[in-house]
Amino acid sequence: MRHESITSADTAADAGAKALLEALPEAALLLSRDAMILTSNRAARAFLGRDVTGEPLSALQAGDDAALAHYIDRCFGTSSPLIGSIVLNDGGKGDSCRLFGCRATLPGGAVVLLRLDPNEDGRFTALNSKIAELHGEIRQRRHAQAILAETVAERELLLRELQHRVKNNMHMLDGILRGAEREARSEEAKDALRDVSLRIAAIGAVQQLLYSSEGIETIDSARLVEAVSKGALALARNEAATRFEVDSFRIPIETAVTVALILNELLTNAVKYGQPASGAQQVAVEMTLADRQVTLTIADNGPGFAPQQSHRRASGVGLVKGLLRQLGGSLHIGSTPEGTTCHVGFPLPEQEVRRDLS
Amino acid sequence: MPGTSTSSVAAADVGLERDIFTRQLLRELAGTLQEVVGLDDASGYISVVGTAMGEHIDARYREALAVERLSREQVSEVLVDLKRRIQGDFYVIEETEDRIVLGNRACPFGEMVRDRPSLCMMTSNVFGHIAAQNLGYAAVSLPETIAAGHSHCRVVVHLRPTEDLPDAAREYYQR
Prior knowledge:
The structure holds 2 protein chains of 2 kinds.
Chain A: H1 15-23, E1 27-31, E2 37-40, H2 42-48, H3 65-75, E3 82-87, E4 96-106, E5 109-117, H4 118-183, H5 187-212, E6 218-220, H6 221-233, E7 241-246, E8 250-252, H7 253-273, E9 282-290, E10 293-300, H8 311-327, E11 330-336, E12 339-347
Parallel strand pairs in A: 7-9
Antiparallel strand pairs in A: 1-2, 1-5, 3-4, 4-5, 6-8, 9-10, 10-12, 11-12
Helix pairs in contact in A: 4-5, 5-6, 5-7, 6-7, 7-8
Chain B: H1 2-11, H2 18-65, H3 72-85, E1 90-95, E2 99-104, H4 120-135, E3 137-144, E4 153-158, E5 170-173
Antiparallel strand pairs in B: 1-2, 2-4, 3-4, 3-5
Helix pairs in contact in B: 2-4, 3-4
Pfam family, one (chain A): HATPase_c_2
EC number (chain A): 2.7.13.3
Catalytic activity (chain A): ATP + protein L-histidine = ADP + protein N-phospho-L-histidine
């Protein structure tokens, strides 16, 4: 049965089949066995951008014509959809889409019903392309990261070697000062040389920690206090009773050297001048970190002092004040006949505050 | 001793040889397809391969038997024989002018076919292609399959396009 509105290209499809084809939501074509397009539905016209009726299917694709013809021939042999694919050249789209082709027997003869599935394949094509692009980028980044890691490791090795040499030089310098101290004839000269030796030892302690710790830019506060205190406490005529309460946190190297010198000065003063008239000497060291603020407290149970009355102790305090100016910190001294307490406060920059959770 | 280690590896009972490897490979491929694109689309992909295999096998039998087309009797024999050659165990249950009903006690894919019904499209398309190309038309239905958990397969090859074809039957035409 034929209808006046059906074109001559619809030789194998009647009006009913054409109506059914139009009802399909997906792009669909009816093809003759030799892959000529007999008719297309509305979705196909929208997808392809024109009415392709009368054109060969091969005119739509950018791929192998023989392979496409073979696929259509196979579709002609079965009523169950065979899956294929086509790369469209339409309008330079270059989209790949899946094909579902099968034989349809119409009153006018057998044809191939070909459905086009552009969405999923188009999406996967774009997705695969993007994944490939990202994969390449990741590979490049990993390569760059590997080179950087190697460079950093090399730099770290060189830095450790440098720190090792500095530490050895500090030990050598300390040894020279101790030798000079032993040979000095006046007590005043001996005291001065001992003080300098202790300061050098305090800086050396920081170098030692840097060399032996995992990090190369920061050291642990508790280990710093422990290392610096050893030298200063050795000055006590009789062994002092000590109490340490120190928070563990990371201190950057630049700050650590200054903190070591401050601690050394205040602890040396406490040991040298904080001896009580009777009973055992007691020395307490506290260091805490709260709200980016470091508080260092050194206390003794000595007779106390007035800064203007003790030139030597005041000299050490002057050095501490000078060092604290570098850190933007402050010093408060409370001295009574029952003892002296020195409170030191200074801030740590935020990026340098990292609690050592280990 | 290195020699002892190597020989013990070579003698190990790992149950691996080319045939098992190939079946396992096909099982994994079919399983991946079924999971990624679903059973219907996976069956569509296997159908394309099945059609191609049908073309190859049909051509080989015609050439070997030196005939232009296989006869009705030859088609029936070829369907059983081709499966026998790939370690299937098909046999004819019923044969009339309208249809050939075949049974099968052993799938060529072996136990690897369990839960891989998309692989049955290989049988449907190979049988359908050979029957349609030589006899003009075929519709294949698989009411029972080992892949779906049955103890055996039952394959019906319809040779006439009738109104009472099962919905699951797939039709094949001479090209």
